[in-house]
Amino acid sequence: MTRASRLLRLLDLLRSRRRPLTGARLSERLGVSLRTVYRDIALLREQGADIEGDPGTGYMLRHGYLLPSLMFDRDELEALTLGARWVSLQADRELAQAANDALQRLASVLPDALRLEIETSGLLVPNHRQQVPDEPWLPTLRRAIRDEHVVAMHYVDLHGNSSERRVWPFAMAFFSHVRLMAAWCELRQDFRHFRADRVLSLVDSGQRYGVRRPTLMRRWRDQNAYGSRE
């Protein structure tokens, strides 16, 4: 994380909470030392951020600082709330936390009446979390898709055959009962769909695959978006 990104993240953390956050908590959330947190807070104050508090009581950002330049209507807010709630229940833990953080960040900069609508929304998502295993490698796969990296995995197919694969992942589908990865398989030299619950291990090779992800997506759709599954 660059320093600029860290400072923006720090502002988001302070803005999304109604009570002071301690330096230790900020240090944990940002993944930096306590001394770095104090330096960043001092820098933000120098730049005009209205941050209240001290090391003994914690810190918070005065309400109203850096209000967004756009506003949402009620239907848009309901759509965002429902989507974030779905992700918080169906995605991996890192993405679920990101969804909750995003919703809190949005609520923190809205007028009180609209913030109340988010907090008391009657649009609910059934919790089917127990039906879908929480694969520990999902965050690695999401980053590999984003960075267009080849991944190596140990996979067991529909017939119980085990194999080592190198694939080019470009999409992940989250169904209510299973998660599917769409990828170009180097072994099969074709597009394949892999069930997440049959992946025994997965690592990011750090190598870029030879075709840009949008191109893979287009070829996959043109060939057959519901093609071979293993």
Automatic annotation (TrEMBL):
PROSITE patterns on file: WYL
Domain of life: Bacteria
SUPFAM superfamilies the record matches: Winged helix' DNA-binding domain
Ranges for domain Helix-turn-helix type: 6-59
Domain (WYL): residue spans on this chain: 138-202
Gene3D superfamilies linked: Winged helix-like DNA-binding domain superfamily/Winged helix DNA-binding domain
Annotated protein name in UniProt: HTH domain-containing protein
